[in-house]
Specification:
Number of domains: 2
Order of helices and strands: EEHEHEHEHHHEHEHHHEEE
CATH topology of the largest domain: Rossmann fold
Strand order of the largest sheet: 1-2-5-4-3-6-7
Oligomer: single chain
Number of strands: 10
Strand content: 15-25%
CATH superfamily of the largest domain: HUPs
Length: about 290
């Protein structure tokens, strides 16, 4: 059933989704897809606008995916604001919101999983080992349900983007993957739904993350030894007021492997994850 009293049409089942999409296809229209977990901000809307530039019709999903959360993580308190999300999507040019219930995505008795390697094996994969398998599973399902020509993702989750690109190549999904530059506030903080957890004092500290990464990227670009670059960035984040640092690493931009020479060779990315209280922030920057 299509919910029509929302700011844009909303569907909750694969059957209803495909009925709409198949109608567009019959008219020869191209389709772009933006998967989200809701609690939308300007960064998400940038993705929707880019989707509109690349296809005739835009579908965005809003689904807080339980398979990518560990039991101790924030699944239960992850922000949910479906009505507001629908209004924002409509204003950004989205044509359909797909907001399935958990039972639609993971029917009773579902046991299939996806095991991912390569770019998923370190960094976030080391600290959140359940995450990328869950991300790959839900994105694969969404691609099969929506069947888009192009899918749009943010570069803020750079490792996730690399994992999805690898999965698409490995499993032969007929979809183009497009990354969009990270949206930031006026202080350089990467926009994130989890920023809502931060009070003003912690927001002030969070806004220093971007500067530390920019300095690390500049040093790496000069050919400085990466071990020293990473140590200095780690110390700078602690001085800035972060409670603890999961990692700060400079890696190959495509594979996320370490550089054997100890210096950045070719396209690289500096990636970090740091905590303020119970809130974990991630960010990255091109070298």
């Amino acid at each position: 059933m299509i919910v029509s009293d929302a700011p844009l049409p909303v569907v909750r089942s694969t059957a209803d989704l495909r009925a709409v999409v198949d109608g567009w296809r019959a008219q020869g229209r191209s389709l772009a897809f933006v998967p989200t977990m809701g609690a939308l901000h300007e960064g998400h809307l940038d993705l929707v606008r880019e989707a509109g530039r690349r296809a005739d019709q835009v579908v965005a999903s809003v689904f807080v995916n339980p398979t990518q959360f560990a039991p101790h993580e924030d699944l239960g308190r992850y922000p949910r604001q479906e009505g507001q999300d629908a209004a924002l999507l409509a204003g950004a040019g989205c044509h359909l919101m797909y907001a399935p219930f958990v039972e639609e995505m993971y029917p009773d008795g579902a046991t299939t999983t996806i095991s991912v390697g390569g770019p998923a094996e370190d960094l976030e994969g080391a600290f959140r080992p359940q995450m990328f398998g869950g991300v790959a599973l839900v994105v694969a399902k969404l691609f099969n349900q929506v069947r888009p020509d192009v899918a749009i993702f943010g570069e803020k989750d750079w490792q996730q983007l690399a994992v999805i690109r690898r999965m698409v190549r490995d499993l032969d999904f007929p979809v183009e993957i497009v990354g969009v530059q990270t949206a930031r506030d006026g202080h350089g903080l990467a926009l994130s739904s989890r920023n809502a957890y931060l009070n003003e004092d912690r927001l002030a500290i969070a806004r220093r993350l971007n500067g530390v990464l920019a300095e690390a990227a500049a040093k790496a670009r000069t050919g400085a030894p990466l071990a020293a670059v990473e140590r200095e960035a780690h110390a700078a984040l602690l001085r800035a007021g972060f409670d603890r640092i999961d990692y700060v690493h400079v890696r190959d931009a495509a594979t996320l492997r370490s550089f054997r020479s100890g210096v950045a060779e070719g396209p690289a990315r500096v990636l970090a994850a740091a905590w303020l209280g119970t809130t974990r922030l991630i960010d990255n920057m091109a070298v």
